[in-house]
Amino acid sequence: MSDHTPLNMDEIQRYARHIILSEIGGAGQQKLKNARVLVIGAGGLGSPALLYLAAAGVGTLGVVDDDDVSLSNLQRQILHATGDIGRPKTQSAAHTLHGMNPMIDIIEHRERLSEDNAKTILSDYDLVVDGSDNFATRYLVADTAEEAGIPLVAGALGRFDGSLTVLTPYGTDTDGNPCPRYRDLFPEAPPEGTVPTCAEAGILGAVAGVIGTLQAVEALKLITGVGEPLIGRILLYDALSVRFQTMRYKRRP
Q1: How far is CA 157 from CA 171, 202, 203, in A?
Q2: More exposed terminus of the chain, fewer Cβ within 10 Å: N or C?
Q3: With a threshold of 0.85, does the pTM exceed it?
Q4: In a 3-state reduction of DSSP, which class is residue 247?
């Protein structure tokens, strides 16, 4: 259950820089405290996303990951430290996040998301941040979130680039048109082996920090109702040319 108790004095002091923002205020911070956010993956994207969501005071954070921390993770997965090598990522994440903010709850889902458990896991949350690294999981998360009517902040990484978008395909835009699905953006996964994995192609670690942090920003906007989320838009980031581009996409007939 989410904690709907009013902010205490320690929380008011901790989140003071949020509360003095007129767009957020005490009411917005209370929404963050009441929120339950699920993050898929405690890796390159999940690390910065979880850190900022925890720091922001999101009351309950779920972490899905079945992997253990390895030495090669540490170049970009900033939730984990050298002493965590060999430790389950969810356990390492919970330790780091509680060290940052002991006022929040962390729920470990030490398992791989699958068709058997996705619906059960997602149904317990208000919002999903997808930091997975494979197309099968991305489609599964998108389809499950759509069916459950849960907003999804989806991110992806390349060698020196990344992208993110917000999906609410169960809703409509300001003109009354259905919001687009993940499959409107990516109709089908590329053939297996055509897109190299991170281990095969490499990645500039800090790029994961940029995209994961932007995912946290979009999640915080959705929870508090501030600003215009990336619904029907995809943000593309090219680190080598320092270029951000936003492209619109629509629901396919």
Answers
A1: 27, 10, 8
A2: C
A3: yes
A4: strand
